[in-house]
Amino acid sequence: xxxxxxxxxxxxxxxxxxxxxxxxxxxxxxxxxxxxxxxxxxxxxxxxxxxxxxxxxxxxxxxxxxxxxxxxxxxxxxxxxxxxxxxxxxxxxxxxxxxxxxxxxxxxxxxxxxxxxxxxxxxxxxxxxxxxxxxxxxxxxxxxxxxxxxxxxxxxxxxxxxxxxxxxxxxxxxxxxxxxxxxxxxxxxxxxxxxxxxxxxxxxxxxxxxxxxxxxxxxxxxxxxxxxxxxxxxxxxxxxxxxxxxxxxxxxxxxxxxxxxxxxxxxxxxxxxxxxxxxxxxxxxxxxxxxxxxxxxxxxxxxxxxxxxxxxx
Amino acid sequence: xxxxxxxxxxxxxxxxxxxxxxxxxxxxxxxxxxxxxxxxxxxxxxxxxxxxxxxxxxxxxxxxxxxxxxxxxxxxxxxxxxxxxxxxxxxxxxxxxxxxxxxxxxxxxxxxxxxxxxxxxxxxxxxxxxxxxxxxxxxxxxxxxxxxxxxxxxxxxxxxxxxxxxxxxxxxxxxxxxxxxxxxxxxxxxxxxxxxxxxxxxxxxxxxxxxxxxxxxxxxxxxxxxxxxxxxxxxxxxxxxxxxxxxxxxxxxxxxxxxxxxxxxxxxxxxxxxxxxxxxxxxxxxxxxxxxxxxxxxxxxxxxxxxxxxxxxxxxxxxxxxxxxxxxxxxxxxxxxxxxxxxxxxxxxxxxxxxxxxxxxxxxxxxxxxxxxxxxxxxxxxxxxxxxxxxxxxxxxxxxxxxxxxxxxxxxxxxxxxxxxxxxxxxxxxxxxxxxxxxxxxxxxxxxxxxxxxxxxxxxxxxxxxxxxxxxxxxxxxxxxxxxxxxxxxxxxxxxxxxxxxxxxxxxxxxxxxxxxxxxxxxxxxxxxxxxxxxxxxxxxxxxxxxxxxxxxxxx
Lengths: 313, 556
Description:
The complex is a heterodimer. By secondary structure, chain A is an alpha+beta fold. Helices cover 35% and strands 19% of the residues of chain A. In chain A, the strands form four sheets. A five-stranded mixed β-sheet of chain A has the order 3-2-1-5-8. In chain A, strands 4-10-9 form a three-stranded mixed β-sheet. In chain A, a hairpin with an 8-residue loop joins strand 6 (151-153) and strand 7 (162-164). In chain A, helix 1 (12-45) packs antiparallel against helix 2 and helix 6 (273-281) packs across helix 7. Chain B is mainly alpha-helical. Chain B has one domain (26-554): Cytochrome c oxidase-like, subunit I domain (Cytochrome C Oxidase, Chain A, Up-down Bundle). In chain B, 65% of the residues lie in helices and 0% in strands. Chain B has 17 helices and no strands. In chain B, helix 7 packs parallel to helix 10 (336-350) and helix 11 packs parallel to helix 14 (430-450). Chain B starts with 16 loop residues before the first helix and ends in a 10-residue tail after the last helix. Chains A and B meet through helix 1, helix 2 and strand 9 of A and helix 3, helix 7, helix 8, helix 9 and helix 10 of B.
């Protein structure tokens, strides 16, 4: 079973889409069977035998049958159009629930920034949302922005995709009915590492989500260490933020709670000490063409920075 | 038809190669220009095919490292741009150039010099595009060959994101070939409207000519905004404009509108000639007149009109209002009606006929099945909510390859086999033709049937690699295996063309016992086409000649 199948929806927008998809697929399958059978029959039945030179009867057309195969398709089109429009309105113009949570999603060349304005949280690549009980929905509304090129937010089991376009804010919403990890990735070509701009959405029970929120809202305790000194004395701080320290860059992901994330490099690698160190030392080894430069750290400094980042919980 | 030819000494002395080449370069003969277009398209078909193969090898398994992401991104950009602008368009222009004057009983196109100019502008466009491999670095050393995708969404094309000159070569290439395309379109329109032989009213024009006329009108309407957008992009990149430069307040969405208001009619620019081939070949190989000629013409015009109003179905995910989305759902679905009429009319043409399943007809029959599927998956994509899932996924890639390969390319192959005897004077090898057909059918279905599945399973297009464990692996493997069969089919095709040209049997004037005027000329036709301009009384002038007891003009 694919973790990214559009036919395994767990959230209202994806479910509405699934419903109309099945309807249109059944309709076109019916048309396919009928027309395909007629074609196959015609090819089989009317193939020439022998090399007789007699020409078959010449028929130039028939108003009745041509009218029939104009009117019937029109009726099918009208039906499909009405079914489609219903779902467009259902998904696109859904009223916003009062208890909905807001997340501002900003696409960057090759990673995702998630800002929870109501909760004062900024994180990257791994979106955490509370599960939504269908009886008492708690949907999440996403405002989609881009810092550079076009991107597209696509987690197939939660909703259809919506693009993140610079100067063109978009909206979408999800209300996942099941807890768990839902995968997706950028679906609009955005440059060299479009392929490794992966998305992870963690749908959590309410209490677990609130625990995560509290964790993200705390300031990490960072002691003065060699690693911190190296981190703050190199260009790392130009792009990354660690709350409460000198690192205030906005170009790359916020690292304040890096260790609460399961992956690094926008989902391209698991967040293990070895891979984190490799990522710092030589980003191209994990994600060639990513915007993170190799800083040319010595092994000792790379170890120290890794150790420092390991303290950011 | 000996009355139609002027006797020329058959043992003309062999002229030196340079002289013959010079004749080809300076020619204004519509037939030679047609062959230049087609030969040029075949060269680029090989290039685009190699690019596709490189991509498929890279995607054969997850985390493959056959090529770098940079190379992969160049490959899909070059593959798309090449196949649309330098294979499909020159191919259909080539056939239209060769056949339209012959079919309407004219001696050449209306503007022979414009015709030559148009071809060479198109040729220059292809050279610009491929020169980017050498010149794209510019002074910056950043990237060679464009890597912005064939629809080159802003702001990836802005100076900030595309340093060096690869995007400039892409822009120049499309601008240059666009001028050529508009020139040819004007020429086709003028020729069909003004150069028809006596008796050939619009209502008696072969469907091929009708469809070429509508295609040419669409070219003018579609290529003009594309060319305008290219100029605006150049202004952005070099003259400080901000049309699409989002960092200075430009609009990325405006580029999308410009591109797709070209991009969707472009599908019909390519599909109408394919329909045109099918509309000539299916009747001849069914031994019946086309069913419902007036409705076929009306359906073509309807496709032209509706085709101009569907472009934003490429943009269902960019955040248009519900009303705009609904409009483009309706217009897109509406186009299924005239397209469906065409499929039914071809079916009715075959019904009650005597089908000769030679290679051209085999390709047309496969076209009918495949185009049916392509049209139906098109209807699924027209359902905007379904498209929110499927847009930019491999399902879309499978769908439009079903249209362009399964529909258009199959008809182009049919056209090659059907008119090869006329163009070359030689008959192709039927056994090799059937090998080509079956290899290509198997390859096509292995590749493009199974390509729908990873899209449904969430695989986006334009990714140079993918994660294991998403259920995509096996489908990608099958898709890549199909490429080998398609490549083998194309090699058999090339071998057949070369071998038949050199060693094939003489074809004679009319090997298919066909009905349109080009078959009344010698094969290949002389430079002047017709010594005496023919006069026609019906849509099938050669049928009338062959069946004086039962001519078409009694019924039309």
